[in-house]
Amino acid sequence: MTATLERPRTGGSPVIQQRQRAWRAMLFWIATHSVGLALGIMFTLPVILVLLTSFMASDQAMTSSFWPESWHFENFGEVFERAPMLTYMINSLVYSLLAVLGILVSAVPAAYALAKLKWRGQTWAFMLVVVAMMLPPQVTIVPLFDLWVRMGLTGTLVPLIVPYFLFDAFSIFLLRQFFLTIPKDYLDAARIDGCNEFRVLTRVVIPMAKPGIAAAAMFCFLFTWNDYFGPLLYTAENRDSWTLSLAIASFRGMHHVEWNLTMAATVLTMAPAIVLFVFAQKSFVKGITFTGVKG
């Protein structure tokens, strides 16, 4: 009995083989990135829904129809007519930018002292930072509110901004973890050259820690930009000090909610944060990546 061996078929012309390889590569990419694609779609759909609703008519918003029957670009102009959105946007910028400045002034030196200096009680001080970070803000809000009322500063942005110039536990913790990744040899070399601790911090540590500082600043900006509880508590009595988060709530009436205008105001509120993240995402991701390298 004789067996005949056949050559394997090549599968067609080179063009067909190239298409098959491209198809298999695409299927492999989809399989390996399926979880990321699913999460991306899940987080993107609400943003798309908000954007589409902002262009709808009032009677179509929040119905079963997801696509605008007619595009109403005038909704964004009506938002500025109904409320002083420019003033609210300036208030939000003042609140967020001064809060970021506050953590740069207070958290950076504190994190440097916890990460690169040796002093008595350092471990206990770091534990205090961790405990303060886990402490719910509702625990301290009553005595703090009473303090600001006695000082006559409610109705302004001062009670929201000043705490960031004094102590922000999360920013200190985040920067301390990043400062630990900076090799000690650079600091010792600067000290040998005659630099004091302030110059070591400003000339060596801060330039090398720009990604970590950018990450902490962006966390602070996004939190304060979207903060609703703080402005509601301290500025609700004075509309001139309202932020954008409170302005969105002003489009809700007692018996009717104008969802198209609410979504238009929401789009205006989201836009600066999205633009900031697009331009700063490289430093943000790098800062988060290096933060957990060394404990």
TrEMBL record:
InterPro entries: MetI-like (IPR000515), MetI-like_sf (IPR035906). Keywords: Cell membrane, Membrane, Transmembrane, Transmembrane helix, Transport. It holds the Pfam family BPD_transp_1. It is a multi-pass membrane protein. The chain crosses the membrane at residues 27-57, 93-112, 124-145, 157-179, 200-225, 259-280. Residues 89-280 form the ABC transmembrane type-1 domain. It is found in: Cell membrane. It comes from the Bacteria. Belongs to the binding-protein-dependent transport system permease family. PANTHER family: ABC TRANSPORTER PERMEASE PROTEIN MG189-RELATED (PTHR43744:SF12), ABC TRANSPORTER PERMEASE PROTEIN MG189-RELATED-RELATED (PTHR43744). This is Carbohydrate ABC transporter permease.
